[in-house]
């Protein structure tokens, strides 16, 4: 099987994942901005795997406006992650250099902030390599649209103009979003995913991005 396009997740695929403590600090700063001392449960609601319902319940408990709080949390996340990239703590994986050689249209669909993705593309001089790319805007609406919702994968495929595409990610939600959008998937089992059990079946499972050159 060969494909006419490849769409990538970013974190854990093209660039290394962000240090957990850095994100935790950014989340804490969002609470501090609104003079709230968060409990561990409050923090867990906003650190990752965020849902609009969980966010709304947490904000209601503290009398916070959900949209305002989320905007602050997400822009904090982007600020600290751009700093991590700039200071060399969120490098590209060596094998991700393959995107400079793949001779089909490429896209990115990330659940990171769109501002973070744009910064990464500029910092690593990758903007020319990608025909389309989506991160999330700092809105509740885009929390609803993040993977496993196929919304942004479908938009990327429409931009590229093909349905014969492969989606490459390192999370179960990537595989789910790909299949919901009707395309094949790669689960990339890098070191940080060595022990993960998937409840979905990806089309392929690779340990590096090297095999992609034979699939286009
Ligand atoms: Mg990822």
Automatic annotation (TrEMBL):
- BP GO annotations: DNA repair
Glycoprotein is among the record's keywords: no
What are the boundaries of the signal sequence? none
Q: Which InterPro entries match?
A: HAD-like_hydrolase_sf, HAD-like_sf, HAD-SF_hydro_IA, HAD_2, HAD_sf
**Xref: Gene3D superfamilies:** HAD superfamily/HAD-like
Q: Name one GO molecular function term.
A: phosphoglycolate phosphatase activity
Entry's Pfam families? Answer: HAD_2
Keywords associated with the record: Hydrolase
Quick check: keyword Hydrolase in the entry?
yes
Q: Which domain of life is it from?
A: Archaea
Protein name per Swiss-Prot or TrEMBL: HAD-IA family hydrolase
């Amino acid at each position: 099987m060969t494909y006419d396009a490849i769409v990538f997740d970013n974190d854990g695929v093209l660039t290394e994942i962000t240090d957990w403590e850095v994100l935790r600090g950014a989340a804490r700063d969002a609470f501090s901005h609104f003079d709230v001392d968060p409990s561990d449960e409050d923090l867990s609601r906003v650190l990752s795997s965020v849902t609009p319902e969980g966010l709304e319940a947490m904000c209601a408990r503290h009398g916070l406006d959900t949209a305002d709080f989320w905007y602050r949390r997400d822009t904090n996340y982007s600020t600290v992650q751009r700093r991590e990239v700039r200071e060399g703590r969120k490098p590209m994986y060596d094998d991700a250099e393959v995107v400079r050689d793949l001779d089909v249209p490429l896209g990115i669909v990330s659940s990171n902030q769109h501002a973070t993705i744009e910064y990464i593309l500029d910092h690593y001089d990758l903007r020319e390599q990608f025909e389309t790319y989506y991160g999330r805007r700092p809105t509740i609406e885009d929390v609803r649209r993040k993977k496993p919702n196929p919304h942004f994968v479908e938009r990327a495929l429409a931009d590229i103009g093909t349905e014969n595409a492969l989606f490459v990610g390192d999370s179960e939600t990537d595989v789910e979003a790909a299949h919901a959008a009707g395309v094949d998937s790669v689960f990339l089992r890098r070191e940080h995913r060595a022990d993960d059990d998937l409840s979905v079946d990806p089309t392929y499972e690779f340990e590096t991005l090297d095999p992609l050159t034979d699939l286009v």
